[in-house]
Amino acid sequence: MKKFFPIVAFIAVALISLTMAGFAYFATQEASRIKFEATADDALNRIESRIDLHLSLLRSTQALFDARNGDISQNEFKAFFNALDVDGNFAGLRGIGFLRLVKTGDEAAVERDILHDHGFSRSIYPDTTQPWRAPIVLFEPLDPSNQGSIGYDMFADPVRRDALEKAMRDDQQHASGLVQLGQGTGAAQTFTGFLVFVRLNIETAPEVINASRSSTAGFLYAAFRATDLFQVALSRAPVLPVNTEIYDGEVKADNLLFKSETPPASIFGDRLLVTRKIVVAGRLWTVQFRPTSAFQPPSSRAIPVMLGLFGLLLAGAIALVARYQERAYDAVSQLHETTEKSLMEKELMLQEMKHRIKNSITRVLAIARQTASRATDVNEFSASFSARLQAMAASQDMLTRSRWQKADLGDLLRIELGQVFGKELPEELLSGPEVLLDETTTQALGLTFHELATNALKYGEAGSSVGALKVDWKVEGRGRDRILVLNWLEAGQKKVDVPSKTGFGTKLIDLNVTRELRGTIRRDFQSNGLKVEIRIPLTA
């Protein structure tokens, strides 16, 4: 197998290099997409900001009419409009106007107002069969090219009527679909654009419009030239390398509101096409962005090709070197692996030893303090303390012999009970299945069994009568829900009374079972002995 190693190395490195080149290629494509999406979002923000600015003008005009209760003369409206400096601040705005809402057949009052405000007679046009009419009565700038729009009924046009009917139902702004501004009014020039309407007091419109201005009701509207509006928004420095198409609703040729003069770069095709949906005055628009020739991808396509060629050369070089370095590499690798493994094992053993020594010292100190606090003299302390240390040592010895893996519950009981009752224990004393205990459980149960045996020897008949003590256990549940159930039974001829006070041995048992092992212990003092039930969870 070793003689094929240079060939295998060449194939592996070549495949990896070509894979990396492929990933690099796709990464460059993804980077281009992300960069252009960010550019397109910047362009979209410019468009939305410009539209919001223009719509704020309509809102301020609405506030003016609301504050004056609709009592705005033509001269006052003109003065307000001139103060806005529309040419300098609102490029793309063709003008702002007011439509009077009137029922069909009641147009005379509106025609009188037109004569009064403008000084010329104008009939409402064109003729219509609609129940309502919405003629233009105020418009600015009212230059000669726009005077023909006075009296034009927007309810007569289906596109404008659709937006007007929506505006009649609430106080929100509503944009119309694509319209030809100036068409039907006799204007010398028409523009592609859209209108935005908002109602004024439409909810209190009377059945018949009176000549009194306090009862006026209708709509304010703003007319926008799409080309001028969007060109100004997109021409702000720095000029973005995007070709923009804006559609009213779906992407159809008949719905095209605006298209950039700079064509998209054919090299990208539709790979970087970005489509966004925006809502303008309640109407959905679709905006498409494509990169122009000015768009610079963040990285060159030559990089993946160079990376692939370099990888193939590298694979060949590695294959040649591998022929001469194979044996040296194997030797160094084996030595390094052995050294690392040895160091790791030593470090683990050292850390484990520190941990166990610290735990043992803490446990010994606690037992020493508690034993000393209960002992009446030095001899009693020495005997109790030594017995408990021997119980700990026996548990430690079991774990050491098993290399700190697992200890058998039955063996642990035989060792601890043997220290108290002698090495020869009756066979019927212990009964239960094989249960392997971890380090923590072994140490805690070792001390627990020692204390139980010591109490049985002191206060029971286990030390003088064969069969006076029996210990059995079983395991309930499965997997992580396993519970060890251990029964400690002391029998005899005399009744075992509940102790009047709790000694250290009993406290040590309870602490080991309930706190360290998260289990429960229940004692039942009976007329013929003592029954202790211990339940502790077993680790998986």
What labels describe this entry?
six-stranded antiparallel β-sheet, 47% helix, 11 helices, five-stranded mixed β-sheet, single chain, Beta-Lactamase, alpha+beta, Heat Shock Protein 90, 20% strand, 540 residues, 2 domains
**Which structural class is indicated by helix and strand composition?**
alpha+beta
Globally, the shape reads elongated
Uncertain segments are 202-216
At the first level of CATH, what is the class of the largest domain?
Answer: Alpha Beta
Order of helices and strands: HHHEEHEEHEEEEHEEEEHHEHEEHEEHEE
CATH-scheme architecture of the largest domain: 2-Layer Sandwich
State the separation between the terminal residues, measured CA to CA: 43 Å
Share in β-strands = 15-25%
CATH superfamily of the largest domain: CHASE domain
Secondary structure tally: strands: 19
Return the domain count: 2
Rg from Cα: 48 Å
Largest sheet: 6 strands, antiparallel
Counting DSSP H or I runs of 4 or more residues, the number of helices is: 11
